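Structure in, sequence out. Go:
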């Protein structure tokens, strides 16, 4: 039983098993193709107003029925995982196309080719939409990393493959999709969003500033939304920093003070010292720069980096492989706080200092958007509710 959402899977299912075997198509692969296209269709359906988890719930019964076959199928796709280019080269080679054409006959080959294009259009639109949804998050991380030095960059685990602007990388991906859209795919039948069919930029180097300027407003809006949801008090701190910079004679110092206080309160109220220390001991026991002994009390306390890492991971274990973007966000906030700490004592209000505070506001907003939208993505609802209580947006039952 198939979902009926993949034209290609439907056509493959009607082929004689001997023909599928000759083409190297095993039964489980048909289920994988059908599932991928079904998910993509559900996610890009603009007529469905439900949240995406509710949309995907339409497939629960089907996946449950397929589960044994899907497990076998995924295990059988080891070759594709090991060397996807080799498989693609074989399928795209003229020799394979000629062989498949002779094997299947004109009518069947034409139906399969048409089905591939139809499903390809779904994947192309889904990929482009996903790439463009990543752009605000990519810029949020770029903003967050503004004050990170070259030495600090080198200390971020797993960062070597991300040594340039993340927004630029995403724009290059979007630009590469233009070649896919030139393959005569019936994309117009899949989406009514005309902007998805058009290139976003002609020249990445020349247009990246324009795109970034457009996205800054998006990030500010998302940051305001996230902060208001978490804590009205903290939201006012960021808004106050911007107002001080715009209207106060001592705006640089006041704004920097407000932002440092915001960062410290955010980290302190999200997770207390004991929670952060326990998190460090269980997840980063080998790192010596996350805990220190207070010189006055002698008590062990977490550093700002420890607090920030615990915050961006949502108090959860990173797993075997540290999530490099979480590490980047944490490094960015710590570096931003360090620069703002110096600006607290500003007494000249130079253009450079004013610009640095504005970049600091953008960095803080970028961190908030990234941490909540990505770092906390897997946080259960009950933990998120508890976080709101701690941050002061919702009073606990005992306080009412």
């Amino acid at each position: 039983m198939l979902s009926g959402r993949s034209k290609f899977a439907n056509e493959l299912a009607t082929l004689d098993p001997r023909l599928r075997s000759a083409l190297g198509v095993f039964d489980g692969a048909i289920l994988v193709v059908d599932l991928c296209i079904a998910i993509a269709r559900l996610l890009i359906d603009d007529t469905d107003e439900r949240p995406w988890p509710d949309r995907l719930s339409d497939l629960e019964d089907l996946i449950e029925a397929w589960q044994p076959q899907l497990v076998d199928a995924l295990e059988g796709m080891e070759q594709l995982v090991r060397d996807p280019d080799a498989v693609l080269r074989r399928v795209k080679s003229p020799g394979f196309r000629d062989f498949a054409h002779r094997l299947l006959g004109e009518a069947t080959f034409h139906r399969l080719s048409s089905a591939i294009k139809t499903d390809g259009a779904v994947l192309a639109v889904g990929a482009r939409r996903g790439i463009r949804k990543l752009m605000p998050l990519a810029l949020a991380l770029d903003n967050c990393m503004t004050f990170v030095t070259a030495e600090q960059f080198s200390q971020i685990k797993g960062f070597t493959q991300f040594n340039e602007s993340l927004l630029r990388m995403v724009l290059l991906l979007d630009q590469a999709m233009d070649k896919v859209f030139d393959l005569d795919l019936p994309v117009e039948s899949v989406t009514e969003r005309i902007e998805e069919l058009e290139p976003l930029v002609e020249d990445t180097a020349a247009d990246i500033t324009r795109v970034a300027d457009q996205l800054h407003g998006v990030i500010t809006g998302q940051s305001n939304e996230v902060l208001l949801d978490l804590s009205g008090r903290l939201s006012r701190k960021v808004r106050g920093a911007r107002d001080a910079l715009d209207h106060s004679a001592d705006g640089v110092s006041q704004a920097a003070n407000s932002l440092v206080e915001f960062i410290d309160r955010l980290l302190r109220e999200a997770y207390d010292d004991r929670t952060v220390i326990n998190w460090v001991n269980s997840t980063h026991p080998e790192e010596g720069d996350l805990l220190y002994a207070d010189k006055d009390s002698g008590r062990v306390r977490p550093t700002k980096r420890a607090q920030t890492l615990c915050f961006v991971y949502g108090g959860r274990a990173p797993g075997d492989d540290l999530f490099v973007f979480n590490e980047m966000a944490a490094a960015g906030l710590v570096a931003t706080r360090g620069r703002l700490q110096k600006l607290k004592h500003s007494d000249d209000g130079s253009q450079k200092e004013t610009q640095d505070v504005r970049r600091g506001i953008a960095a803080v907003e970028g961190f908030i958007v990234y941490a909540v939208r990505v770092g906390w993505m897997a946080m259960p609802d009950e933990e998120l509710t508890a976080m709101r209580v701690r941050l002061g947006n919702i009073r606990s039952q005992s306080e009412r």
